[in-house]
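User: Hey, quick favor. My workstation is busy. Could you predict this chain's structure for me?
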Amino acid sequence: MAYKIKCDVCGSAEYLPLYDMDGKYSIIRCSGCGLWLSYPILNNEEIERVYAKYHEVWGIVGKDEEMHRKMRHLTFRCLFKSLSRFTPHRGRLLDIGCATGICMEVGEEFGWDVYGVDISEEAARVAKARFGSRVEALDFVRAKEMPSDHYDMIIMTDVLEHLNGARIAVEKVYKMLRPGGIAVIVTVDTSSLFAKFTGKRWPYIHRQHLVYFSKKNLNAFLRTMGFKILGFKSAFKSINPYYAGEYMRQKSEESAKKKSSAVSLMEGLIGRLPPRLKYHNFIIPSGDIVAIAKKG
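Assistant: No problem, here it is.
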């Protein structure tokens, strides 16, 4: 099958089918660099529909908002601590995909002058309550007017894999950074043992994720834009058993009409946990990579 898509990393137009996702869509793999794509690619209108309720479905806003805030706050504290040796000087920081502003909160605690953008007006509204005009609701890929040579650090956590236009976004990041500024990208890793072991059941495969990098092709991708790679790190996230169970339940509902026995078993086990364990946040390796790159 000819997919007629040019790879953002190597420019190849040759792809091989990797996984059929129950007839709903496919994961295809670039034969040149190994980049994965979700196919057919969602258009901008479909992406907007996906994100209309995205933050509510995943607990970023709504009934689980406070629990999610605590989890994310701990995750970002781990991230900023790991970045300290790359960023000895503090300055202006932009969080792309800031959601409700939790990364901004932690960045401010670490001494940064923080700003944020997010595609979701609902999530940005929550962030604006804390940070006011320093938060904008916009589609970063399609935004026209963005400042050049303006930020000392730009962070994209759990964003790159969602973008229809990853190259456009990262080229903008490069332009917006000051000379010597740092880009921090946290994204899913197709070369992780977790991805290799779980195959098409890898929890990070779902319709909202459009592009999937490995450490190798993300390295090449950033270098083509002029970035100097400072390092790659394994990402760690804070998660509690309740949220893990909800995540697996939603994933199961996306892919099947009936709950899997594994999900039912997990729900039963989590339901028997005392609240202090059910909602206790554990720091675990997430199967993501953190790329730290410097503008030349």
